[in-house]
Predict the 3D structure of the following.
Amino acid sequence: MRQAWRWFGPDAGVSLDAVRQAGATDIVSALHDVPIGQAWTPSQIAERKTLIENTPADRTPLVWSVVESIPISDAIKREGGAAKQDIAAWIASMEALAAHDIKVICYNFMPVVDWCRTDLDYVTPSGATAMRFDQDRFAAFDLHILQRKNAERDYSEADRLAARATYEAMSETEINQLIFNIASALPGSTTEPLTIPAFRDKLETYTHVDANKLRQNLIAFLEEVTPVADELGVRLTLHPDDPPRSLFGLPRIASNEADYAAIFDAVPSPANGMCFCSGSLGVRADNDLPAMARRFASRIYFSHLRATTRQGDGRSFYEAAHLEGDVDMVALLRALVEEDRKRDSGSKIIFRSDHGHRMLDDLAKQVTPGYPVIGRLRGLAELRGVITVLDAGALCSAKAGG
């Protein structure tokens, strides 16, 4: 498996030497400054690729191997194949990337909001901080700050009472921070920052899009895109919903095993793959991650590896250390490593330590939420250690069998 690092570019405060020192060889990056729906140009891609891959003589080479992400526009999510202009722009970006030998593309199909958290610095038992999704704070935002139309229908009486109590206990500063956390588009997201009025307006545009319609629109998009991807040798990796359930009354269609099976059955092209995100899928207690990895093994081209700890009734959670929490990371890695051994050197699974705790010196710095250096460094080291042991065990077994 190839070890990667999410890099937001030269202005993000993380040097490429820091990536080298972490032990990663592959870069996961994107052109976040290009507006959603606009095609990436060859010159823009070449500039980023040159920055990453023009290695000084005394430094370890890095390769830009994964794009995360080319955003999917709202028009495609709402209209599917009818959004011809936006699909054409997406294909043009893919073609330009392939021409520069960048052939793994991550994307998601979450409407209005991308990955969602209510807290960016939840204090864990170690004193490090992590990102957290608190159901009561989310409901307080939905019901009392956003005041979404008919939102009360999505909550039980107990939920509504807890949300009101949570909201009434919040200071103005806490309310503004919650708005920022949910509506501002967190780093790496593929949705636009929204004011509260714009948030309500955007939700209204999805009034007639249910889960079936959203899935049909994704399939229509893939039917247009995968033939070109097949010709180019590109692999598309659909990221799971995060959290993997409906938010704001919006449909979610990449949350469990059945969701992915339906998408792969509808579009069987080898280009139609998944980004196996253990942190997103692991939030649901009914998702058996090792079993999912074994079932969809041939479709996994890219993986985000992290863990979460469910709290209360399971709707709240925080991001645990990579080998802790509710994800059986060793069992999951065993399934991924077994698949990876079957592949040639050019098609290995690329993975990155996803997110990380804010810890040690990073606690005193301004860091990108979810992407502090030290926490991700710890995570990558832990994952690398497990993989090393699994590989050594397989080698011993092979020798014993021989």
